Amino acid sequence: MAKISHTLEYAATVIGVKLAQAFSPRMADRLGAGLGSMAHAVLTSLKRIANNNLKRAFGDELTEEQRKVIVRNVFRNTGRTLVEFARFGKTGKDGIRAIIEGPDPVEF
Fold first, then answer.
1. pLDDT tens digit sequence for 18-70
2. 28-35 contacts: CB < 8 A, separation 24 or more?
3. Given this model, what pLDDT does residue 66 score?
4. CA nearest 79: which of 48, 51, 42, 37?
5. 3-class SS at 102?
6. Which of 19-23, 74-78, 80-84 tops mean pLDDT?
7. Residue 25 pLDDT
C-alpha cells in the first residue's frame, strides 16, 4: 500500500511543479498562496503548534487575533516559497521584476 501512496504523492508533486512552471509569475504566486491557505485550513495540529510557539515567545504582547493572522500568513508564505522552488530556473530576471511590487525598481 505504501508504494501506491508514494506513487500518488510523486504524481501530485510532478503535476504541481508543471503547473507552477506553466503559470505566469503572478499566477504562480497566487497558486502558492492558495496552497498555503488550503494547508492552513487542513493542518490544524500545525496551526495549534505555531500558535502555542507564538504564545510562548511573545506572551501577552500579541492578542489571539494577531497570532492567528501571523500563523495564517506563515502558511501562505510557505506555500509561495514552495512554488518559487518549483519554478527555480524558469522565472528569470523579467519574471522576478513582474513579481516584485513597490515604488523602487529592483536593479540587477
1. 888 999 888 989 999 999 999 999 999 999 999 999 999 999 999 999 999 99
2. 28/83, 28/84, 28/86, 28/87, 29/80, 29/83, 29/99, 31/79, 31/83, 32/76, 32/79, 32/80, 32/81, 32/82, 32/83, 32/84, 33/76, 33/79, 33/80, 34/79, 35/79, 35/82, 35/83
3. 96
4. 37
5. coil
6. 74-78
7. 82
Q: Measured at the alpha carbon of residue 66, what is the angle toward residues 31 and 53, in degrees to the nearest 5?
A: 85
Dig out the grid coordinates for 88 from the structure. 527555480
Cα–Cα dist 75/65, whole Å: 16
